[in-house]
Fold each of these.
Amino acid sequence: MFNRELSWLSFDRRVLELAEDSTVPLLERVRFLSIVSSNLDEFFEIRVAGIMQQEESASHPATREFLQEVLKQAHGLVSAQQNCWKEQIVPALAKEGIEYKIKGQLTKAELHELSERFDKDILPALTPLAIDPSHPFPVLTNKGLYLLALLKDPESGETRRAVVPVPRVLPRILALGPSNKRSFTLLSIVTQIFIERLFPGLELKGSWAFRITRNSDLYVDEEEAVNLLDAIEDEIRNLRKGAPVRLEIEHSVPDEELTWLLKSIGLGVDNTFRIQGPINMMRLSSLIDLANRPDLVFPNFSSTTPTELSEPSKIFSKISKGDILLHHPYESFTPVVDLLRQAAKDDSVVAIKLTLYRTSGDSPIVEALKEAAQNGKQVTALVELRARFDELNNIEWSRQLQEAGAHVVYGLAGLKTHCKACLIIRQEKTGLKRYVHLGTGNYNPKTARLYTDFSLFTADEEITSEVGLLFNVLTGNLAKPKFKHLLVAPFHLHRGIIDLINAEISSAKAGRPAKIFAKVNSLVDPEVIEALYAASNAGVSVHLIVRGICCLKPGIPGKSENIKVFSVLGRFLEHSRLFRFENSRGEPIILMGSADWMPRNFMRRVECVFPIKNKALRTRIENEVLKVYSEKLGDVKQLNSEGQYLPCSPKGRSDAQVQAAFLDLAKKHLADNISAAKKTPGKSARRLR
């Protein structure tokens, strides 16, 4: 199998290739550069940190050699990223009248403007930290921006050092000049130009921007924690002091100063990245808004809302008539928000239950739940406090919901609640009726405009009753629940997926059609991979779309020659999980859900994978979704047995693309519905959102 960490870096390399691709709008290329940096931050905070811990504990003899290989490849990726910025992006921006300037390129007028801005807007926020016997080396924040200053006392000739933290609230990119002809520079560059003003009476010998990345994995003993919320808050505070795992610093730093800094923070030279451009390219994304050039980004699009969901006041009656499927972001996430808002004010709604893993900062989902609780409805929110890097946000949502009167629980001990489910119970003439929303993505309206995901609305009694059981498991800690229609981790999702794969093997051996389609973000689980190898050997055709990490090796004779692995990267983050098994139960079965094929999803998370039972929806998925993924190849690359991702089309991204095809389908559905509405007076058409 391919190594997980190296596969992660391979994914980042494919993201970087989008930044290097001249057919991608220029400012979107800047965005992809920033995404590479964001991904690398997490890679070091979690994966490299874990390898380094293994090395320190000597639990794996080969860990040191592997760590060196990982760092070697990471160095190569960072070098390519910096080269892309310097050699490709910066010249291309200049051609478009967007000038990025470093220290020696600023004009006298620009320096004068920056001098005034420094004294007014930057200097008051800076606090120099001297380092000497009476001032020990400070604790530096994870991923914070700092300047190391080397100083000399002209009277005594003594050499001094200081560290200058640059507050996160200060904008990292500064615009210069009139709005019709703007240039840009970095805050770190401006601070270095005028840093002497922080040290009157001392001579500046040099200054260098740097950044430290620390181990950011949470370690909370849930059995020992009296209050999980308080325990996680305490651990987040401790993360600021986590062990350093990476130093990024300006390439011009002298060797002796670098050696001193590494000794001060307790890090080795192998984990040092000398940077020839911006220290943190993630901050370059702010340039997109500052430049204000709509012609240099992807064109705007408007997602559509299906006819049956265009009137929020009728949403329950529409769901009662049949299942409804949305494909985000091509179709709007607004109906999900509408469902909760309507439930909050509907007098017939008795209870609302919802899982909350990640949501937006101004979440209308949380506001709807708070309103529902204030209106006297029974509201239960399963808030995952350990959602990586969203822990503090979720703690705040928990407190707000509790203050509003909602019942907030944190799921099962030792398990992250990652499933995406909402259950609404309504009192109707025939009795209590359940309505359910199940999704592949988070209840986050902002990311729903950027991530591809599916939403299913259903009142199907078999599905809704099992979603009710799922919530009872989460709130009541039921030990051995039995699900017939849903595949739920950690109880039987893993076994269920392997059983479905084995059923295809049996079909192939019996001479029946046997095919597997699976779309996931990551494929890591060894048992599932071995089952797929067995399926390949039995003659099952396996088509996999794996956005990121893939440990399976396709195309190996006698092992995986019937397996093809593809990766789709583009304007939107491919986030949906979709599965199709050709003949496992006598006819194709289509599933969606929240789980990737990784040990953590199968064993350490609560996940929900659900069937698409409605025949019309299954036909739509077959004829639209699966067809697009198999035929549009411009933004698709195929993984070979050597670990290389090669373009599926010789035309590359200039060929028909998956995501463009889905945008076109959404426009076609909109036009068809408008046409139908004109022919049928009184019928509402899809609306734009």
Note: Residues 63-95 form the longest helix (33 residues).
Amino acid sequence: MVLAVASCGGGEDPEAGGGCSPIEARFQTAWNTVLGAKCIACHTAQGVAKHSKLRLTPASQTGWESANLEMLRELARYQVDGDSVLLVKPTLRVPHSGGQVIAPGSAEEAALVALVEGLESGGCTTVAPAGADTAYFAEIELLDAAMTYRRAAIVLAGRVPTSEELALLDEGGDEALPGLIDTLLAEPAFVDRVAEVWNDKLLTNKYDRGHDAVNLLSKEDYPQRKWWEAEGVDAAEKALADRHTNHAVAREPLELIAHVVRNDLPFTDVVTADYTVVNPYSARVFGIAVETGAGDAAPREGAASFTDPADPTEWRAAKIPGVPHAGVLTSPMVLNRFPTTDTNRNRARARLVWNLFLATDVMRVAERPIDPTGIADHNPTLFNASCTVCHELIDPIAGTFAAWDATGRFRPPAEGWYPDMRPPGFGAEAVPFGEESRGLQWLGQRLGADPRFALAAVRTAFTLLTGQPVLEVPTEEERVALGEVGAAARSRAATAQTAELTAVAEAFVADGLRFKSAVRRLVLSPWFRARDARPGLAAERLRELGDVGSGRLLTPEELDRKITSAVGVAWTRGWDERHALRDPETYALFYGGIDSDTVTRRLTSPNGLMAAVQERMANEVACRATARDFLYGEGARVLFPHVEPTFEPLDINGFVIPEAEARIRDNLRHLALRLLGERLADGDPDLEALFELFVDVWLTGRDAVIADEEDEWLPWECQAKNDPLTGEELPEGQRIDRDRSYTVRAWSAVLSAILSDFRFLTE
């Protein structure tokens, strides 16, 4: 949010050194040190102190700063012995149910004193509409249109820009960006990326192996769960079903989210949809009749139409008979991945709802030491203030899951919900009597209408683009670990980021909650486009800006897509050509990926093992791609459009061949632009380094071949013996399996160097 300073009390100008500090600055200091770090644990609309006059609006909600300032200005007028109640209660000069929160004479008290003085003076309190704090980015250099689009294309669609797209950006600049971004958002790879990010949260891909997903389903509820084992199903259909059915069932919640995004439906459907999605194989599992047709205009109960009933990539919305759908909330995969017990009573599921759909980590809400000797109540989760601060949030939502058992079966309990817990509901509102079995449908509607739902979706979009978690104002424990300077920098960065995401969330709502619109706005924001900080900034300011920008190590899946698009070949391992960076049995886990089972958190900083994977990838991909690319005609080559294997920079006497050298440099520029997004001018150090590498490898290798110290035959893995388009084996004379001049291996060395460059491995 942009906080506009109107004027200071008494007409003093803060820029002129008149001694008046803007109230917004004072509020931010008090928020970062006390209000948002300590007081908010209890003093919210749902907290244990919800009935007090101090009720803080969390930073995750739209308009939080202006709402808090208005409330604090009113509360600051209440005094005890001449001092504001805002000062005497937290220092325990008067009784305070939360005990002493800050010590007299501390920096926290000084921040509150400054805030109260500013509130009492009545100055500097004008708040402008929500939006990005442009001043925060004043010292940041942004990517130009071409580089912004390149980064977006790789992250969103898993590909490098085309030459036509780059030409449009060179001509149209920033004005051409929105339209081109929309083309990326319409590509299937974007929807795949969305599902990938949501699996990082739901982890339901755990069941995408063997028959794990199908076996989770009850035979009583789904008697056709292994329909392909029935008599009358031929061997070919059985083989296909055994291959595709479990995958389809495991992917059900992710494909529902993909369906919402792909079709530009309101994102609230993720929690409110009265349907799920199935393909021809999972439809039979769920008792949905498979019909041949163009697809249904609206989901039907018990039936779905498919253009090709054997195509596993066709997904259709449908209703499972007898199931009161509420988007992913009622997905059997999600309910199994986040099960419940007799003692947990759906609280883990409720925490998931708060985190994913309300942008709130309830474990941070009351992150403070608890004295176990002070918990002597018969039912502390209902009556003890140390427990209710969380349980007032969690337990009502937990109750809305009452009709779904530990294995995700719809089994409304005959005896009702636990009487020693808060009744099922959301906030202060309870599920209407008689509607308990439809509690999740009731909850989904309220989640979708809550302003925090939009912010939660925007936060997910932010992580999709940047690979970074959303910044939070540090807790007291984190402040100690960061130190005073580090905590202040983190708080300022979190405040600026929240302002940007809040502004995007407001526009997201205005756009009809279309997820693509939120992604488009974030791509155009400084948080995605930041390239570097201007030189000469103070260390404290650099620390504050450390999280700006999306430069990061690509995930295994993202790097796999980038390699395939930029180089023209995939990095594969094994007889079945599995992609090495996607396969947990090869390099996916070694490179920081997850298996959604025992490994559920990605590594974002490279280690020695990951560096070894990077080096191996660069060598193997370069080996496989170089000769293969030369098989294409000159106009169709991805990597080497400007050279032939016969082009050597020097003749046998060591004299420069000008035309060949010029063409080699042109191709080096092409590789740098395609693989790194760098435009290298004549004399650029990177261009010269690549040229020297090519010449050194070529000369050394050529001389070794002439002296019979090295074989002219390319290693078997590096030979190109099959037509790259048809896959058919080529005649002897058309293969590239020898390299007597050593140019193929020299180009392979250059390609390997670029593929192992941090600029290729990050984005």
Note: Residues 346-449 form one domain.
